[in-house]
Amino acid sequence: MNNQRNGTLSTITTVTQTNSAGSCSCNCPCGCGCGGTGAGSPQGQQPNSPSPSPIPQGQPNSPYNPTPQPQSPCNPQPNSPNTPQPDAGGSSGTDAAGEVGVVTATPEQDDVEYLAPVKIGGQTINLDFDSGSSDLWVFNTQLSPQITRGHQVYNPAASKTFKLLQGQTFSISYGDGSAASGNVGTDVVEIGGVAVQNQAVELATKVSQTFIQDTQNNGLLGLAFSKLNTVQPQQQKTFFDNILPSLAEPVFTADLRHNAVGAYEFGRIDNSKFTGQLAWIPVNTAMGFWQFTTSSFSVGNSQAQRVAPAQAIADTGTTLMLVSQAVANAYYSQVQGARNDPNAGGVIFPCNTNLPDLFVDVGGRYMARIKGDDIRFAQIDATTCFGGVQPTTSGLEIWGDIFFKSQFVVFNGGNNSLGMAQHV
Asked: What is the pLDDT of residues 98-151, one digit of tens each?
């Protein structure tokens, strides 16, 4: 499997795995859709996993394994995670307290990534919203026509509001080995009716092959904390940090769906999108991620099992859900025919097998249910499917779109917390 993407910024030590077909190329049997929130040359490589076995014993060489290594085991900050929940209603504009905006989140094939329309200087471009990085960069007219063929391209010369930031550059690398670099300007950036007048827009002059091949994706919009932004010599703020004071509520929400159009919303929590009450989890911002502790899990109807506490991040820019070896082993031991296949790049199983739900602890306050149907990621041949939950040997678990397809998630920038509830 080569069509997953790892949208985690590799600002810390990154170990990117590749298989014989190359890192996140678009020649895999599940279709194309590479690219990711975090590119750049791999700085290392993990050894091959053992031979296939009924229970996976290790992670094979695969292109999606993120490996930002935590610098220290940070505990969640003691923030108060309560936040008002506005009534469900309109989609965009201004309410009594501030601005609200919503855009569609459209999946590529196999839900590899979700793309949303963004207006930059009045020009609409589909971007990948990535809560695992903090740069907004785009395909633009500084790239050659050979590179931009098939892409939506931002033209700064056609914008009356673009301003070049002299001497400012960016260079970003992601956990899947992809990368982009170039120069920087500012322009009006609008998402669903809410706009930042002087948002930093990074103009790529170099992009990796995975981005070039993925013609539906025209750049990334980072939604992690601004401390991860790569612009030098003057670091820039994310769109969310800039728009935060203007929003009706200091939040954005991710409503990503299995093989269906979802939404990103800024400034409001739509109560019609989830069931029950939101659980609030403080996040640790030390590394710039939406990061929390996880320390238990259960499979199907079994009792919860404790595991060594680990750090995890909520990352809309990564395709799969990457968990500890212990959790992956326990889960796939309950899946008939599951085995670790180095050629496929991870754990596979017969497509007709029943998959149990996976329950994972979030910050000691919530057990999130990942539906078995969402873990059946993609077919690699007529009878074999690739698992959406895979093991990682990194010290940081990456909970990507497989997680989000089962959970409605609120990112609260007012008190640095995450709200979670089961999708309707």
From this structure: 999 999 999 999 999 999 999 999 999 999 999 999 999 999 999 999 999 999
Q: Determine which one of 111, 128, 130, 341 is catalytic.
A: 130
End-to-end alpha carbon distance in the chain: 30
Indicate the pLDDT class of residue 6, thresholds 50, 70 and 90: confident
Active site residue: 110, 128, 214, 315, which one?
Answer: 315
Determine whether 176 is an active site residue: no
**Residue labelled with tokens 């249910």:** 369
Is 95 noted as a catalytic residue in this protein? no
Backbone torsions φ then ψ of 260, nearest 5 degrees: -155, 160
Which pLDDT tens digit goes with each residue over 322-338? 999 999 999 999 999 99
Average pLDDT over the chain, rounded to an integer: 84
Class of domain 279-422: mainly beta
SS (H, E, C) 66-91: CCCCCCCCCCCCCCCCCCCCCCCCCC
CATH 3.40.50.2000 fits 105-246, yes or no: no
- Domains of the chain by residue range: 105-246, 279-422
Backbone angles phi, psi at 416, to 5 degrees: 55, 65
